[in-house]
Amino acid sequence: MNPTDIFPVNSNHLGNHSKPTIYVKELSEKDRHRILRHFLALEESDRLLRFGTYLPDAMVEKYVEGLDFSRDKVFGVMSHHFRLVGVGHLAFAPRSEKDEATNKDTVAEFGVSVSKTARGKGVGAKLFERGAIHCRNADVDTLYMHCLSSNQTMIHIAKKAGMEIHREYGEADAYLKLLPADAVSVLREAVQEQVAAIDYTIKANARAAVKWIRHLPGLKEK
Ligand SMILES: CC(C)(COP(=O)(O)OP(=O)(O)OC[C@H]1O[C@@H](n2cnc3c(N)ncnc32)[C@H](O)[C@@H]1OP(=O)(O)O)[C@@H](O)C(=O)NCCC(=O)NCCS
């Protein structure tokens, strides 16, 4: 597959390529089947990195069935062809009594995965950034992430975002302290979501049109 099929790269008037724009959108019930397809397409080793254990297909299905869109936030990045290529799951939980990193009642944990064909283009970092800004705006000041200490890519993203990393027995727990919400963070998230929603609708309509044309009599593939 041509990498520009994932995100078309913009060229400026000098013919130079700039970085593709990545839109992160909040996903909902109607995306559940896309989320499942995204996870099922992850290789065994990536499922291990994402979930901390190797999850067989049946367990992945259970995990996706159990996603509660009213309690947690699930963010996604769509490819040019309306395929879900990145998923970030922000799960909220009550703070444990042992937790000394915060005195808020709620903490958040973030998990992320990006399809192989879309890696190295900033999708993982954008999803992480969106998760962090959402926490700020939801009055959560501590964002946790759990990953294997061999996961250098994720550790790089987390460190770049300013996360403190604690390593223990091959596991790395990272947490990021977040600033309180302000007008800029609230506006930034709202604008990001609106732009991403427009991008999502355009891609969904284009995909539906392509499907419709393919089903026109006489155009069916033999
Ligand atoms: C981790 C993952 C989400 C990253 O997604 P991605 O879209 O490729 O990430 P990005 O493109 O935003 O960023 C990758 C960064 O890591 C860096 N990187 C890549 N390989 C690296 C390595 N071996 N060591 C250190 N840094 C590395 C890149 O240079 C880039 O940094 P930069 O932006 O400063 O140049 C993706 O690899 C994935 O889905 N892995 C499987 C699941 C997983 O590990 N999830 C995390 C645990 S919840």
UniProtKB/TrEMBL annotation:
Protein origin, superkingdom: Bacteria
InterPro entries xrefs: Acyl_CoA_acyltransferase (IPR016181), GNAT_dom (IPR000182)
The name this protein goes by in its record: GNAT family N-acetyltransferase
Gene3D superfamilies per UniProt: 3.40.630.30
SUPFAM superfamilies registered for this protein in UniProt: Acyl-CoA N-acyltransferases (Nat)
N-acetyltransferase domain segment(s): 22-182
A GO molecular function held by the record: acyltransferase activity, transferring groups other than amino-acyl groups
